[in-house]
Write a structure and sequence with these properties.
This protein is an alpha/beta fold. Helix content is 39%, strand content 20%. It starts with 5 loop residues before the first helix and ends in a 36-residue tail after the last strand.
Length: 205
């Protein structure tokens, strides 16, 4: 039986070497995947809380009742900017309620620098949870350099506000607008802005 040619032996040795390297890399990647799964799901236990701690409430973005739907292309583009981020109102209230009943939490710190918008109605709901937290005997502290109107309204429910000596507060004042309606086909009636509906025709004597 004749021996294989030199060229064939070279190709065979090269192919065997490539096969061994491929199997070694596959085994290494498999082991790395096992280590990653162990660290993420089994090994990374959260650090225990200290005996006494404060709840840090630092919402980023706008506080909303329901999050806006995310388009698939926007999700692929990456995470939204802090200004576009949304925080559920229910999550904020539940965090305050859990901290009220947690004996390890002795105070609440509101860091409102990155809060973009919350609104009056949602502020009132958060304020009710803050009042219940205060009634449990735990103080509330608000911290910030500059306060917008929404931020300061929420910070006003704290027992103490800590601000930078050169900081400031932007107050524009809240306002409401009342809608007035005119009935269809009643253009001949006089319109009085003080009435929410069409005022009756004034009879002349």
């Amino acid at each position: 039986m004749s021996k294989p040619s030199l060229l064939r032996r070279v190709f065979s040795a090269t192919w065997n070497g490539i096969t061994r390297v491929r199997l070694a890399l596959s085994n290494i990647l498999f082991l790395l995947m096992l280590v990653f799964i162990y660290v993420v799901y089994l090994g990374g236990a959260p650090a225990p809380l200290p005996d006494r701690a404060a709840l840090l409430l630092n919402p980023v973005g706008s506080i909303v009742d329901q999050k806006s739907p995310v388009m698939p292309l926007q999700a692929l583009a990456g995470d939204p900017s802090p200004a576009d981020n949304e925080v559920l109102l229910r999550d904020v209230i539940e965090a305050i309620e859990y901290a009220k009943d947690d004996p390890a939490i002795n105070s609440l710190v509101m860091e409102l620098d990155k809060l973009v918008y919350v609104g009056i109605s949602r502020t009132q709901e958060i304020a009710a949870a803050l009042e219940a937290f205060r009634e449990s005997g735990k103080p509330i502290i608000a911290v910030g350099d500059y306060f917008s109107q929404d931020q300061y309204l929420l910070a006003s429910y704290a027992d103490e506000i800590i601000s930078h000596p050169l900081g400031g507060v932007i107050l524009e004042g809240f306002s409401s607008y009342r809608n007035y309606f005119r009935a269809r086909g009643s253009t001949n009636r006089p319109w009085n802005p003080s009435c929410a509906t069409i005022c009756p025709r004034v009879k002349k004597k």
